[in-house]
Amino acid sequence: MFEHTVRLLLEGIFVCEITHREAFAFLNNPANQQSVNDYLGKIGLKLSRTQHGGSFFAAHIETGGPEKKAAKEVFTKIKHELRPLVAFLELVMRASQKDDVICAGFVIETASVMLSIDSNPTLRNDLQSLANLVKGPAADSSDRARFNKVLNRFKDEGYLYLANSEREIYQVTGKIEFIMEAIAFLSEHEKIGLEDEEAEVASQGSLL
């Protein structure tokens, strides 16, 4: 399990209970955390964890040179992902008629969400706008195709996990915690400069 877990981390994957249950359980053991961290340390990396503990990932130890460039790339990617991801989460919450914060393990039932969207013109308009924000092949004119495009995009980005392909049920992964922490940071430091933001991302742990 050590080798498998390390490979996942080196691939830049967020290891959480939803997507990689066994590897997540392995990393929950302090002794295993230490052994993985010792190994990563030999190649300039460290084992990091989101603040709420829902996801592990590998991050750079140093923040200068190539590491600073990596931090900048992570920051830029986050900035580009924030708007469509937040719009998606808001759409799902409204369609699901839930007021609680979406966190790791949150279940998205495609049929149920689509039923709400089909019966609400505002939600349909929001879905169309969201589909235009999300990168990927152009969807056809149906709302279902637009929603599938959005789901596939965030599944490919690691924010969603297809828990039941037959019923098209998705679960939000632990990676959501990382992006929520980034949102909180950006909201708190709305007026600071780009260099400072990059440094903060680097200090939290820039991804591979």
UniProtKB/TrEMBL annotation:
Recorded hits in Pfam families, A to Z, give:
MksE
Q: Which domain of life is it from?
A: Bacteria
InterPro entries referenced in this protein's UniProt entry, alphabetically: MksE
| Record protein name field | DUF4194 domain-containing protein
